[in-house]
Write a structure and sequence with these properties.
Helix content is 56%, strand content 4%. With 186 residues, it is mainly alpha-helical. The chain folds into 2 domains: 51 residues, no CATH class; 123 residues, Up-down Bundle (Replication modulator SeqA, C-terminal DNA-binding domain). It has a 3-stranded antiparallel beta sheet with strand order 1-3-2. It is elongated, with a radius of gyration of 20 Å. The N and C termini lie far apart (44 Å). InterPro entries: Arc_rbn_hlx_hlx, Ribbon_hlx_hlx, SeqA, SeqA_DNA-bd_C, SeqA_DNA-bd_C_sf, SeqA_N. Keywords: Cytoplasm, DNA replication inhibitor, DNA-binding.
Length: 186
């Protein structure tokens, strides 16, 4: 057996495709690449896989937008299924994990989405803590992991869900995923 290094995004993609407990990375890759379950000489790669790769190369450039959206959806699904997320007991930490995933996968779109998500008297997102704290005497803010953004954190669970839903809608994510995220906070 050989050892190969893969970047974090590829690792998370492979891990997100696990169908059974204990399934190895080799098993997952064999299934995804439509290779036989047991090792075979590489020459036996199925012809339809080669044709699929040729078809993929012919797709128009606009497919990239869909691919980026699919990656974002997969990242959120991976976050929701991760043991770090499911074992977290504090709603605020789950809230921050989802926001972090949204930012990491599309910083530009996330930044644009935060511009219009705010309360009637409070700012929900800012690039510094002080901007959020200035909107009230009892306001608490935390930095979103792996991002330059800060977010208000002392809202109730329902409001956190509304905030996440608004960001995800602005990022044009599917309504079913938004509902799953909101339900994951409860």
């Amino acid at each position: 057996m050989k050892i190969i290094e893969v970047d974090d995004e590829l690792y998370h993609y492979i891990a997100s495709r696990t169908q059974a407990i204990g399934e190895s990375a080799s098993d997952i890759l064999r299934r995804l690449l439509r290779l036989p379950a047991s090792p075979q000489p590489f020459v036996l790669v199925q012809e339809n896989m080669i044709n699929e790769l040729k078809d993929l190369a012919k797709l128009p450039k606009t497919k990239k937008v869909l691919t980026d959206q699919e990656k974002l959806i997969k990242r959120i699904e991976f976050t929701l299924a991760s043991s770090v997320f499911t074992s977290e007991t504090k709603v605020v930490n789950r809230f921050l994990q989802i926001l972090s995933a949204l930012y990491v996968m599309n910083p530009e779109e996330f930044a644009h989405a935060t511009e219009n998500v705010q309360g009637s008297e409070r700012i929900y997102f800012a690039r510094d803590k002080e901007t959020i704290l200035a909107t009230g005497s009892s306001v608490k803010a935390k930095q979103i992991p792996d991002s330059p953004f800060w977010v208000i954190t002392n809202n109730n669970t329902e409001r956190k869900g509304i905030i996440l839903g608004s960001i995800m809608q602005a990022m044009e994510l599917p309504e079913t995923l938004i509902e799953r995220v909101k339900n994951s906070l409860a």
